[in-house]
Amino acid sequence: MDDLGFYLGLPLLGAVAIVVSTIVLYLAITALLSHAGQRLHASPSSLDLAVVTVLGAIVGRSILGQVPTLSGGLLALATLLAVEGVAGRVRRSERMVARRRHRAVAVMVAGQVQRHELTRLGLDETGLWSELRAAGVRSPQEVAVAVVEPDGRFTVLRRGEDVHPAALTGVKQSGELLERLARD
């Protein structure tokens, strides 16, 4: 066993395999969850939660290899934290902030459901109405705008009061939404 393998409690090649598999699987899971993230946060079903749990188990097992060891787990954890730290810096960079600026999406405008946006997000009207009821909405006419935020939460702005342009900051097509609300 080489010196590094002696100190880590696993051979150098095994350590390299853990680091590489941690990075690759982190990137794969991040891509998968960013694609389905809003839907998973907005209305997680039991099946969604089960799938995420199974994905976590598969990823954890794949990272640690055939014989999981404490040192391998610690190395995977350190690699994961390092990759997340780097990814956090990238996400906060100006270029990424500009790309993410319009990730909130209006799914109901002036009392009308935007079915194409719901479909694009992988949501349905059942989930929308569940969130509207939780916000105390009794009728579509009460809603000026219902927005699915980037983290999957819903925000409901009610009719009857002017919607300040700043309230729609970061919402996809906010200028068009304000024009539509002004006409309504």
UniProtKB/TrEMBL annotation:
The entry assigns this protein to a family as follows: Belongs to the UPF0702 family.
Where does the record say this protein resides? Answer: Cell membrane
Q: What is this protein called?
A: Uncharacterized membrane protein YcaP (DUF421 family)
InterPro entries in UniProt: DUF421, UPF0702_alpha/beta_dom_sf
Which is a Gene Ontology cellular component entry for this protein? plasma membrane
How does the protein associate with the membrane?
Multi-pass membrane protein
Record has Phosphoprotein as a keyword: no
Q: Which Pfam families does the annotation name?
A: DUF421
Q: Is-annotated flag, keyword Cytoplasm?
A: no
Tell me the ranges covered by the YetF C-terminal domain, including all copies. 102-161
What are the transmembrane regions?
6-33, 70-90
Keywords (A to Z) from UniProt: Cell membrane, Membrane, Transmembrane, Transmembrane helix
